[in-house]
Amino acid sequence: MTPHDSVAPPNEPPPAWTSPGLRRNAWLIARREYLDRVRTRAFVAATMILVAVAVGLALVPIGLRALDRGAIVKVGIVASDPKLEASTTVILDSILNHVPAGADPAKWEKQYRFESVADESMATKAVETGQLRAALVVHRAADGGLDFTFHTSESSASTLSQLIQYGSFGVGVLDYVGRAQAGSGGSGNPGVAFHLPGFDVASTNTAAEAGRPLSQQEAASRTVLATVLIVLIFINLTIYGMWVATSVAAEKSSRVMELLVSAATPHQLLLGKVIGVGGAGLTQYLAILAPAVIVVALQDRIASLLLGPAPAGGEAPLVGLSVSILLAYGVFFLLGFALYALLYAAAGSFVSRQEDVQTLAFPLSLIAMASYLAAAVGLSSIGSNLMVVLSFVPFSSPFVMLSRLMLGRVEPWELIVSVALLLVSIPLALWLAARIYATGVLLYGQRPGLRQFIRAARTAER
Question: Over the stretch 141-178, which tens digit does the pLDDT of each residue have?
Fold first, then answer.
C-alpha cells in the first residue's frame, strides 16, 4: 500500500444549489447585469416613454368622460297618453339637464335630449341600432299608477340608468298627486292609494352579460386599458427575455465566458443573469408605477379642473389604472418574466454567436405571441371557457388573467390558483433551464448539433 492509498478520498463537492458561494457569486453576476442595463441610454429612454404611456393611460377615462359629456344623449319616451309623455319629458329634462351650482346657465348646454317614439318595439330597435342611447316606456297600471321599462345599451348600474330611475319615481309621485287632486275636485283625495312606481331595466350590455355590469364608458375604458397592458407585458417579456439570451450568447462569443465559468458555476450564472435583468425590469416598473399611481389618485380632481363640475346626479366613476390593477400587472409581469427569462437563458446557452440567438429564441417568442393574441382576441368573449382555461396555463396566464381582471369576473380562488401555478412552474423551469444551461456552457466555442448536445449533457450529469 502506497502512502497515497492511505489518504482518504476527498469529499464530493456539495450540490450547486447548496454551494456556499451560490449567493455571493449569483449576487455579483446579478449586480453586473443590473448596472449594465440601467446605465444605458436605451434603458433610460424606454423608461421615459413608458412613463408617458402609463400616465396617458391613467388619463384615458378623463378623455372618455369629456367625449361622453360633449355628446348629446338621445332618450326616447314612449307613452300612450300625450299629456303623460309631456310631463315625463319635462320632469326628466329638469333633472338630467339641471345646471350645476357655479356654472353659467347661459353657457350650459343640455346633454340629454328626449324624443317621442310611437311604440315600444320601435324604441327597442332604435336602441339596438344606436339611434337612441336609451328609451323609457311608461305604462299605466290597473290601479291607475305608473310603471316604467327602461331599454338601454348600458347596465342597470350606469349613471344614466340611475338618473332615469330617480326621475321616473318623481314622475310617478307627481302623477299620483295629480290623480288624487282631480278625483276630489282639487281638494285632495286621501282615499287614492299610492302606487310605488315599478322600474325594470332591459339592458343589452354584453359586458353585463359577461358577469360584471359595466356602462359603455366603463367597458370602452377597460377594453383600451386591457389591450395596452397585455401589449406591454408581451413587449417587456420579449425584450427582457432577449436581453438574457443575448447576454449569454455575447459572453460565449468572447473570452468573458472562460473567466466566468472558472469563477462561478452555470447555476450561479443562470440565477445571476435572471435576477439582474429582472431587477432592471423591476426598477423600470417602479419608475412607471409612481407617477401613474399619483395620476390615478388625483383623477377626480383633474377631471373637475379640466371639465368643470359634474352634472346633477354625478357621473360614473372613472375607470382607469387602479392601484389593484397596477399591482396585478406587477405580479404577473415579474412571475411571467421569471418563467420566460429562464427559458430564454437556456436558449442563449445553445449558441456561441449572437447572430444565432434569434433562431433559437423564435419558438419562445411564438409562445408569448400566441398567448398575447389569445388574450387580445378573447377580450370580446372574456367569459368563455377557453379564456378561463388559458388564465390558468402558466405561459398564457400573465396575459389572459390580467384581461379577465380588467373586463370579466374573477373569483378570488381563481386568482390564487393562477398565481400558484405560475409559482410552481418557475422552479420546474429553473431546474430544466439549469440543466440545459450547464450543457450549453460545455459546448463553448462549438456549433452545437444534436449529438454534441447529448454528449455534453451526459458529461454535465457526471
Answer: 888 888 999 988 766 666 777 788 888 888 888 888 88
What's the grid cell of residue 57? Answer: 393611460
Taking 60 as the threshold, does the pLDDT of residue 449 lie above it? no
Task: For residue 255, count CB atoms less than 10 angstroms from its CB and return exposed for 0-12, middle for 13-18, buried for 19 or more.
Answer: exposed
- Looking at every residue in the chain, the average pLDDT score rounds to 74
310 three-state secondary structure: coil
Give whole-number Cα distances, 325 to 189, 229, 332, 398, in Å: 57, 10, 11, 13
| Largest separation between any pair of C-alpha atoms in the chain | 132
Give residue 18's pLDDT.
46
Looking at residue 212, its pLDDT comes to 44
Among the residues of 196-253, which ranges form H helices? Answer: 206-209, 216-252
Helix ranges (DSSP H) in 184-215 = 206-209
**76 forms bridges with which residues in the sheet?**
115, 135
Q: Which amino acid is at 208?
A: A
One-letter identity of residue 301: R
pTM, two decimal places: 0.58
Instruction: Compute the CA torsion angle 448, 453, 455, 460 (nearest 10 deg).
Output: 120
* Contact (Cβ atoms closer than 8 angstroms) between residue 21 and residue 267: no
Are 280 and 38 in contact by the 8 Å Cβ rule? The answer is yes
pLDDT digits (tens, 9 = 90+) for 178-192: 877 766 544 445 556
Q: What pLDDT, on a 0 to 100 scale, did the predictor assign at position 10?
A: 45
Enclosing H/E stretch for 106: none
Task: Enumerate residues 6+ apart whose C-beta is below 8 A from 174.
Answer: 87, 91
Q: Can you list the domains of the chain with their CATH numbers?
A: 21-64+214-461 (no CATH), 71-209 (3.40.190)
| Helix and strand element counts for the chain (H, E) | 16, 5
- The C-alpha cell at 264 is 462561478
* CA distance linking residue 438 with residue 446, whole number of Å: 14
Written as one string, the DSSP assignment of 32-46 is: HHHHHHHTSHHHHHH
Alpha carbons 227 and 221: distance in angstroms, whole number: 10
pLDDT of 417 reads: 93
CB-side exposure of 378: number of CA atoms within 13 Å? 29
